Amino acid sequence: MDGLNPELMRGSLELMVLSVLSDGSKYGYLIQQSLRDASDELVELKAGTLYPILHKLETKKMVRCRWDDSTGRRRKWYELTAAGKKQLKVRVDEWQAYVECLRRVLGPLADPSSMPA
Amino acid sequence: MDGLNPELMRGSLELMVLSVLSDGSKYGYLIQQSLRDASDELVELKAGTLYPILHKLETKKMVRCRWDDSTGRRRKWYELTAAGKKQLKVRVDEWQAYVECLRRVLGPLADPSSMPA
DNA sequence: GTCGATAGATTGCGGGGCTATGCATCGTGA
DNA sequence: TCACGATGCATAGCCCCGCAATCTATCGAC
Fold first, then answer.
1. Which residues of chain B are within 8 Å of residue A95 when distances are taken between CB atoms?
2. How large is the ipTM?
3. I need a surface site. Which of A19, A64, A74, B78 has the fewest CB within 10 A?
4. Is residue A117, in this structure, part of any structural domain at all?
């Protein structure tokens, strides 16, 4: 991770991976870059973090994968399954419930009008 | 935890504790209840989770505490220090940067208009 | 021909939340 | 009266997860 608090990231990494896979199948390295781009350089997912997540998603049948050996560079393409797409929706809902909950807990602290320059 | 994804909670628990302490000093059990109330019953912080957090905050001088033995029921009151209040502001900013970042990563998925009934 | 970027993967650690447990007090109700 | 549930604080150990470190291999550039 980079400019953001790493502690906060824990738990939403899987959601992010599912999310970047939602607009088409990608291989690992591409997922890293997509996430980096989508997050304005704020999320730099390390390989040692990404691959275990992908393997876990594969085990849970959330993604399906296919080796591409047509080029010299071996690439493993990951694609969301139907279950994965469904799971993504669930996770997005959970995320939004969580954000809403935190907003309530923080109360006025979360209100930008109470944060002077 | 309760109705929310526990994985997501990890990392923001300390922020929540700092937050509930921001409107006056409280003792442990009260903090649990305040958080439960403020979150609409969604956050049920277990004692085994709360006290280690409080001890850590104490070690880091973010809170100061005082035993109250005036009643039969011993209570340990926690109060934010100046450093704690500052830390809370920092954490809130980090939280908002994180939410903003996730919104970017999720893209249209985070857009309520794309979520049909 | 060597170095950096691309590409995939595993191991082991460290940190943090939770379950379980322990101790003590107070109010309620049987 | 005394047992039980709620109040109140605390620690130990398990388990999960992110990450640094490490390994292998290919490709383009210099």
1. 8, 102, 106, 110
2. 0.87
3. A74
4. no
